[in-house]
Amino acid sequence: MSRLVLIDGSSYLYRAFHALPPLTGPDGSPTGALFGVVNMLRATLKEQPDYAAFVVDASGPTFRDEMYPAYKANRPPMPDDLRAQIEPMLAIVQALGIPLLRVPGVEADDVIGTLALQARSKGIPVLISTGDKDFAQLVRPGITLVNTMTGTVMDEAGVQEKFGVRPDQVVDLLALMGDTVDNVPGVDKCGPKTAAKWLAEYGSLEGVMAAAGDIKGKIGENLRAALDRLPLNKRLVTIKTDVELEQGPEDLRPRPRDVAALRELYRRYGFNAALRDLEAGNGEGSGRRTPPGPSALAGETAEAPAEGLAAPGAYECITDRKALEAWLERLRDAPLIAMDTETDSLDPMRARLVGLSFAVEPGEACYVPVGHDYPGVPAQLDREWVLEALRPVLEDPDRPKLGQHGKYDLHVLRRHGVQVRGYAEDSMLESFVWNAGGQRHDMDTLAQKYLGYQTVKYEQVAGKGAKQIPFSAVSLEDAARYAAEDADITLRLHRVLSEKLAGEPRLMSVYRDIEMPLVPVLARMEAKGVLVDAEELRRQSEDLGRRMLAAQQRAHEIAGRAFNLDSPRQLGALLFDELKLPALVKTPTGAPSTNEEALEAIADQHELPRLVLEYRGLAKLRNTYTDKLPEMVNPDTGRVHTSYHQAGAATGRLSSNDPNLQNIPIRTEDGRRIRTAFIAPPGRKMVACDYSQIELRIMAHLSGDEGLLRAFESGQDIHRATAAEVFGLPLEEVSADQRRAAKAINFGLMYGMGAWGLARQLGIGRGEAQDYIALYFSRYPGVRDYMDRVRQQARELGYVETVFGRRLQLQEIHSRNAAQRAGAERAAINAPMQGTAADIIKRAMVSVDAWLQQHGDRADMLLQVHDELVFEADADFVDTLLAEVRRRMAGAAELRVPLVVDVGVGANWDEAH
DNA sequence: GTCGATACGTAC
DNA sequence: GACGTACGTATCGACG
């Protein structure tokens, strides 16, 4: 049957450019993108389509620019290295005999759309080869999409599955979502999920617009704000299918290739594999080994296009000793080993090793299964034997290793008896340091962003939800495809990201001198865990439970009926509808809030609000802490092992989860009691060391404000000193209220708070709050100048940075939305202080750990809570520890103010404060 | 049963 | 809308 293949040349050129390492030809000219495209074309031709066209954008404006002058205004200019590859690409396309189309005034998309519909009307099946999701709107019987980079084929069912809408709804979906790359703003906060939901409900864009008044919440407001531009969006994203063309589908027969011209071109650009095939007289792409990935075209198993793009590479599944030894040889010779482990659990403290993968060159990776277990599983190498064989490499500090979130793999291997040394690079942390604004740093996201590559998802091999199977039950074939890709992609990501970091010495230093050395330190803290008195917590749970029940019964009594105290909605209905109490606070969606502030405000008018507050406080402690922590005790170690997320907070802070040990209560009596359950074992003590007012000290340092610096140098209570300065009083005459106000200002400023917030915080009028702030700035003019400088820098550079050079990108600093922009400005104010504090304590941790490592088992670092480090130490070692930790924490940075460290010792965490 | 959004509250 | 950074629990409605 005849068939038309339409190739979206621009899309592949861009993707290949970003996906492949910056290769160069024999003469040094850039060839990376060219290489990818050529391999893709050779694979396509091997399928011998009857009709084909390579479509690229012509230069000059199109009808879309006339419709919307800002169209694609965000696009950075084409990199020179890419521009240089266009002419060679077109020459190769010509030599291969593929018809080339460039039509001025429209985009390549429109040419493809028109040809696709023409062919379909003549009964010619059409395959559109592209990496651009917008083409999903053209899918219908007879028109299919294929992405040779990811090997995915998309028909109508595929569109429905991927986008959740029918192909004819895709333009509506795209109009709602907008397209940041093309500078077409959609509905704010409306992604594919929300857009698909609306379209499912209202059928079309017009239906959604008509129903805009009924859509609740902030997203509804965003929709209403965007109504005006949606029709234009739709016209912009709609691919034209009625362009006047000189050629019809039947004019697009491939010509015979020009062997002499190809030989010359391949030779010039150093495409040796292609040249070999050409000289061997093979059809394009033949003679290569079968890749493990899905096929590029038509669903049958295609051959790998040389070292190319369509398939991820040559992946080997190792099940015999000889093969492993051959790979060991490669690992020993490699300058850097990309590695990854596969296990049966996400919990690194429980996970059992199922397999390991390695890569040393992009596109070449192996998977060593050691724990697959399903009926009919082929023979695998013995786990112990494999680990013994790998041990010399993995434990050698002089053989650098690379991973993606390698802390996890370090844990797994340690628990299987291998102490990894020389863990030198981590692509997750490279990405985090390179761009800590907003996005996630998981491999799938990074592969998409930096390589333009869609990885095989875990769900694709192991399923999800109830149907998920452990990785040990995944077939060796699927596992090898997935796992080897992980190592391969990690290596490719590292090549891209390390290059970027190399051009920014300060960022490189954050990565090299702070983040990477911290990895094994965190791993040790997590592995050690903290001892928790589960019995004590159970007793507290019982006590809390009794008091909750009493509060609940009393609340139901007063209400005159039973209701769910845990349901804000039911509570709101009772308080504000039935009892007619005033609703003084609104939630972000506009509903009356029942939060603490709202209830406090009406607590003098009715008994119920106070009881609800009582109940809430008790329920929080029990549900979140006293009930849960005992469940988190690891049966093997008898301790609780949190995980620290090193790329979690955009400012550079760590975060803690499973369980979160960075938000254990301290402010209330009942809450603090939970800390008594964090204990030291017999013969040991808990030791807590925290930085005193570190962020305010950093504000003094960064602003250089004389008054603030003096206040810290005096060594006085900083809030009292601030109050004395602001109110023009001697220290001893500062009243409690004045100190409270000064404290609120000190903290509020660091968070970018305005008069409105301060007034609310202090329960005073807005005018009075504004006066306080003005007074503060008049006494500390350096602080105001600093804040102005930071906002300025954020606007000019799009990022702010810490003392050590860590950057936070602030995408929304130029948002058209005033609230978003204001939010970004507040983040800009806060990030240098919060981030510098994070840098400092991270440096301190590395330093303290290095010292602890020299002292065997006398003490262990257990926890980090942003400005505090918690240790467990032999009782007779406590004094030594205190002196050294103080010294190293205080010495972790040289600022214009001293860093002061407060310490405490006790039998439990509460006493250590 | 699972998932995502919303509300709330804990820490620094 | 109004104070920065996190994580966890409960409810509730949608979905299969």
Automatic annotation (TrEMBL):
Per its UniProt record, what InterPro entries does this chain match? 3'-5'_exonuclease_dom, 5-3_exonucl_a-hlix_arch_N, 5-3_exonuclease, 5-3_exonuclease_C_sf, DNA-dir_DNA_pol_A_CS, DNA-dir_DNA_pol_A_palm_dom, DNA/RNA_pol_sf, DNA_polI_H3TH
Give the residue ranges for region: Disordered.
280-305
Q: Name the SMART domains for this protein.
A: 35EXOc, 53EXOc, HhH2, POLAc
User: According to the UniProt entry, what is the EC number of this protein?
Assistant: 2.7.7.7
Task: List the catalysed reactions.
Answer: DNA(n) + a 2'-deoxyribonucleoside 5'-triphosphate = DNA(n+1) + diphosphate
Q: Which residues cross the membrane?
A: none
What residue spans carry the Low complexity bias annotation? 296-305
Alphabetically list the UniProt keywords: DNA damage, DNA repair, DNA replication, DNA-binding, DNA-directed DNA polymerase, Exonuclease, Hydrolase, Nuclease, Nucleotidyltransferase, Transferase
The DNA-directed DNA polymerase family A palm domain sits at 671-877
Indicate the segments forming the 5'-3' exonuclease domain, all copies.
Answer: 2-255
According to its UniProt entry, the protein's GO biological process terms are: DNA-templated DNA replication; double-strand break repair
- Which parts of the sequence belong to the 3'-5' exonuclease domain? 315-502
What GO MF annotations does this protein's record show? Answer: 3'-5' exonuclease activity; 5'-3' exonuclease activity; DNA binding; DNA-directed DNA polymerase activity
Its family?
Belongs to the DNA polymerase type-A family.
Protein function: In addition to polymerase activity, this DNA polymerase exhibits 3'-5' and 5'-3' exonuclease activity.
Q: How does it assemble?
A: Single-chain monomer with multiple functions.
Spell out the protein name for this chain: DNA polymerase I
